[in-house]
Specification:
This protein is an alpha/beta fold. The chain has 11 helices and 19 strands. It is 25% helix and 29% strand. A hairpin with a 5-residue loop joins strand 17 and strand 18. Helix 8 packs across helix 9.
């Protein structure tokens, strides 16, 4: 790390609060919704999660950057955040797998960061007020008041279709597995074919499917029902992604059409919200969302509590879900929001959290086996 003094950076919130610290990464402006993540590790996976598009992420753990960055741990091709906020940026990297310091990595990809601010004060403000729009800058010529006005004029996350910013433009096949990180003996899904709708899919989701021997064909989320069925899939997966599910109406319409085909279907995060809307449920914006690797969820079927990884700012309305024929299967224990559902009659289920969590926790990885088993159970009847 260079000994040259880093420039000053400022983070301005739409409520008028301005935090001043030290810049790292690229000397560019970052604009987006300011949110926080409570994970103790896995900052690289967080940075590269497409669900964070359009958001400035604050980490609650005090020191970030001590394990550097390596290509293998990325969840997409590049960092997706609009900006990064940390209490202390580590000046040293202590990991044999590291290929690059965090600051250099962000600089290479045009992402700005700020360190040296009171992240506890920022997080408390976001918890009390709710997630807010913000601007991160190193521009010394703009006043604090002007920065706040810029934050106020930034686009709202509610009503925004951020999926269009991260979706693939064409189909692709996926075969990469988790390799050394595979644990246990996943169910064998050899011979099965899954079509995955990529709304901003994390790589580890696709790795989990490939670990089970499943052939994975990935399509953009605006693929038509005819295109999806043309691949003759045994199952359909709907991925995570950024933004307001109500704005992704094209995917909802396609999923609604596919319901009649009784195709085994599994959704994660945004996929959970889209499938809920496809059966007739409503979604709404949470005050500050759930983001972290330590979120407690209760499985209402077994009574067990899972520690889960989550990253979402919207939730499914329980009353409308149940009225539409959905059965709530999982509940977030912090606020009783819906964390999972299954359809009462169709082979459709989904969870609001991330069972593919990398680096962890791994409590919910069984859901991929459940998806594969649902396809195995349905295959004789579909032939």
């Amino acid at each position: 790390m260079s000994d040259t003094p880093a420039p000053t950076a400022r983070l301005a919130l739409e409520d008028g609060c301005v935090f001043t610290g030290t810049a790292f990464g690229a000397p560019v402006d970052g604009v987006g919704e300011v949110v926080f993540n409570t994970s103790m590790s896995g900052y690289q996976e967080i940075l590269t999660d497409p669900s964070y598009a359009g958001q400035i992420v604050c980490m609650t753990v005090p020191q970030i950057g001590n394990t550097g960055v390596n290509v293998r741990d990325s969840e997409s091709a590049k960092p997706q955040v609009a900006g990064f906020v940390v209490k202390e940026l580590s000046r040293t990297v202590s990991n044999y797998r590291s290929e690059q310091p965090l600051s250099d990595y962000l600089a290479d990809h045009g992402i700005s960061g700020i360190t040296g601010i009171d992240t506890r004060a920022l997080v408390r403000r976001l918890r009390d007020t709710g997630a807010m729009r913000g601007v991160l800058t190193t521009d010394a010529d703009i006043t604090d008041a002007e920065l706040v006005e810029r934050a106020k004029s930034a686009p709202n996350m509610a009503g925004a279709d951020w999926v269009t910013e991260v979706k693939p433009t064409e189909r692709y096949d996926w075969s990469d597995r988790r390799g050394d990180w595979t644990a246990g003996e996943p169910i064998d899904g050899s011979g099965l074919h899954v079509v995955a709708l990529d709304c901003g899919a994390k790589h580890n989701i696709l790795r989990h499917l490939a670990d089970r021997g499943v052939k994975v064909t990935v399509l953009p989320p605006d693929a038509s029902a005819e295109d999806i069925l043309g691949h003759e899939p045994d199952g359909l997966f709907v991925s995570n992604g950024p933004g307001d599910p109500a704005a992704v109406d094209y995917a909802v319409a396609t999923l609604r059409t596919l319901m009649d085909r009784k195709l085994p279907t599994f959704g994660i995060c945004l996929g959970h919200q889209l499938l809920s809307r496809a059966i007739g449920a409503e979604t709404y914006k949470l005050k500050f969302g759930h983001r972290g690797g330590n979120q407690p969820v209760k499985d209402l079927t077994t009574g067990k509590v899972e520690i889960t990884s989550q990253n979402h700012g919207f939730a499914v309305d329980r009353a409308s879900l149940e009225s539409a024929g959905g059965v709530v299967t999982h509940i977030h224990l912090n606020d009783q929001t819906v964390s999972g559902f299954r359809h009462g009659e169709l082979p459709v289920f989904a969870v609001q959290y991330h069972p593919e969590a990398s680096p962890g926790p791994h409590d919910a990885a069984y859901l991929f086996d459940r998806f594969v088993q649902s396809m195995l159970d349905a295959k004789p009847t579909r032939q």
